[in-house]
Amino acid sequence: MPSYTRLLCCLLLVCSGWLSVAHAQTKSGVVLLMSEELDGKGNVIPLSAEVVELLRYLEQHTRLKFEVRRYPWKRAVENAAMGEGLIFGMSKTRERQRNFKFSAPIFSDQALLVTLCNARFTFNSINDLKGKTIGIVRGTSYGEEFDRLSNDLFKVEDDTSNNLGRFRKLSMHRMDAFLLYSASGNIGRLENHINQQYAAEYGDKKINSKENGKLFCILPRPVSSVDIHIAMRADGNASLLQKIDKAIMQGRQSGELARIYTPR
Length: 264
Known about the structure:
single chain; eleven-stranded mixed sheet; D-Maltodextrin-Binding Protein, domain 2
């Protein structure tokens, strides 16, 4: 009887692996889960030009066809862990490395602190966040040191990926700052962009809070810089990541990835 039990367990594990591969690869292509961000009207913000170009490059050099599915980040991670597909935009942590396999790094993202311009503070190290409230997107890692000290050295305010809601909380002083991931090397341009896109939502009510015509400011030093990968469930189809890794290495050698992610 014990031998039959062991055989049944093995069959279940094999079937589980088959199912994860079946979910990852559909008739329309390889499922690629990605984070969705919402604008002030609740509409999903389109993928950036860099991400669109990167996906086009990977499809061309892997001969894979991606079926992009966008979810709130926490749900995307959970669905990837269940084997729905690959996931784009994941950084490594010790916990994640127990559950996922990762591609080679594609690019680096900086976790930047966004504040009200009239309430900026000095940030040189994690200790400068002591006693403050920092907004984070639920389920997102901002580096192992930040994650470890959350709700200990400082308090975290859990947010969704609705950017307008995050800026609204900041304008109402419900947090001292929130973290925004960006691969941009031009902080001034990014700061101008978020003010053009979001500060107008508050009209003249916040005009006295503006400095140099800006309501929101980005602190110059990032909280962390993390490598961004494509990942999949640990028991997923390793050949998919092998194809992606080969394309990433080719892109590095040719300079194509550097061109796509040249700081703008």
